[in-house]
Amino acid sequence: MNRLLITLLLVLTSPSALSLLSQVNQITIQKLAETPTWKQLLGYTQDGSSEIKEPTFFLSPEGHHDPLEELKATLSAFATKPPQGTTNPQCQFPARYLWLKRHIDTTALGVVEADCIAYRQFSLNGKAESISLLFATGYLGNPASYYGHLLIKINAPTTSFHTTLQDTSINIGARVPPNEAMPSYIVKGLVGGYRAAYSTQAFAFNARQYGEDENRDIWEYSLDLTPDVQELLIAHIWELQNSEYDYYFANRNCAYRIAALLQIITDKPLASTSRPWYSPQTLIQRINEATLHGEKIVDGVIYHPSRQSRFYFLHSQLSTIQKRDMANAVYENLNTEHSNWQDQPAIVDTLIDYYQTVHDSDSSHSKSNRQHYQRAVAARFALPEETETDLEITNRQAPHGGRRVSYVNVGIAHPAEGSDTVQLTLRPVYYDALDAEQGHVTHSTLSMAEVSVRSNRHRSYIQRINLVSIENIHTGASGLPGDKNRAWLLEVGAAQQEINCDSCLGGNLRAGYGISSGFNQNRVALHAMGIAGFLGDSFSEENAYTAVRAGISTKPSNHFSALLHIEQRLSPSGDHELLMRSDMRWRLTKNIDARVHARKHEKAEFGLSLGWYW
């Protein structure tokens, strides 16, 4: 910090700096300071101040909220030779230097261009082939990754000495202390208790973490940028590596920060400061529609399937006999005496991905799984080269083609007893078991801050509030050992305790765990789970319950889906309650659907509704 202050004093008071500022037309400086690009380089928002919290990012004490003073300080710094042992401001802020050089003849003013070795290495000496935006699909093992994650990748020319795994990826995330407890992590993430920062590493690490360890597909959106725009974006990425921001899980997250970073390459805004939520899929949809000078930015989409997706695809391509032979090989620990699996390339390739997928599913078998994997790899090398298995997965829909993430639904509920009610449901994000699409977990639910209100002839009231509603139905598509077919749920919120009751709102807390299984290429899913819950207006034993639930969900096409749940509850007093739920959904257009529901909890109810995604 002392070094920085000394440097600033020297810069701002040197004769050469003052001489430079006197030579530059003040009107030109003022106009440049008010341009959107200059403010975007400084991290300014619509409220007139920067979101960057790191003081060293600004060269003027007023730079956090005064773009003109920061521009003057930047010009002064660029015109002054820095003291020995300090970083040249041009090397610290190459995007500012590039942009100003394109608007002011700095060489005529005596500004000497610095040789920034570290930046040259980062920018590949200006020879980067392209830049990509990466979307890793949602991961229910970490709250911060429920909605997916975004990264930037700088692509070097591919040669025999360089592969895409060696490309540089740029990540942004919250700086979380080691061993942070999950409740603290969730609360701090929601209320801004962390700082977020950018980091860089080889793409190989991200491919391993997302595609191998967490079984998340990665979608790569290649950006078609002119050399000047691409150079400015790479320079801006370099500048932001030492910046910090307040982190909020809902709306100042990785998606928002990446959107703000990419703002300098689009005609229209990508990030929204007014919305209380911002999801990665929202940015993916916006960037796919974005233009620069009237030309589309995205020129191609590449699908990087996770290890699990590759395994499921290969397994689905096996014939019934091949699946039987593979299962026998797995259960017999790849014994070659009773099976000819090692002579069938399709089975060998599927076994390789299978053992990689389940390598850590059971620690007691991790060593044997590694040994079996090595045997499968050895068997693959023993096969002729021309027996390569086709791995072109074509049945995946890119996330930008899906519906929008927010949802509003209006309908009528008709109870078997009582008057009809009008219901309005608002779900800010994200999906339920009926409308899960690409990038979502099929047959599952992930929703936060969902509110349903009803109105009858007498009054309006809250029907349900879901602060958090997560239901993960993992179907274990292969049925082989270690391919976890687990189901679990978590609900936190409030709900009416009886059907058609308008004055019995109580706290709602449910957690469940069980098993699940998929059929017909995962178009049908069955599950059964045990549940412990609480529903009531007071924390008393009589409001607690345990339950057993069985369910089936199906999605035979992109235009229709349905589910049925049957739940048997048992209260501490020994009372039994039977609950039934049935829902059907029709996709009318990409962003409009119609739904029918039926409920049974002592009383019955039927309903019809129309929904819109926005």
Explain the overall architecture.
With 614 residues, the protein is α+β, with helices and mostly antiparallel strands. 28% of the residues lie in helices and 32% in strands. The protein has 17 helices and 22 strands. The strands form three sheets. A twelve-stranded antiparallel beta barrel has the order 10-11-13-14-15-16-17-18-19-20-21-22. It has a seven-stranded antiparallel beta sheet with strand order 6-4-3-2-1-5-9. The longest helix has 16 residues, at 366-381. It is globular, with a radius of gyration of 29 Å. Mean pLDDT is 88; it is low at 1-18.
Write a concise keyword list for the protein shown above.
614 residues, alpha+beta, 12-stranded antiparallel β-barrel, 7-stranded antiparallel sheet, 17 helices, globular
Contiguous helical run count: 17
Largest sheet: 12 strands, antiparallel, barrel
Q: What's the pLDDT, averaged over the residues?
A: 88
Instruction: Give the strand content.
Output: 25-35%
Distance between the termini: 47 Å
Number of strands: 22
Task: Identify low-pLDDT runs.
Answer: 1-18
Structural class: alpha+beta
The level of helicity is 25-40%
Query: Which overall shape is indicated by the principal axes computed on the Cα atoms?
Result: globular
Strand order of the largest sheet: 10-11-13-14-15-16-17-18-19-20-21-22
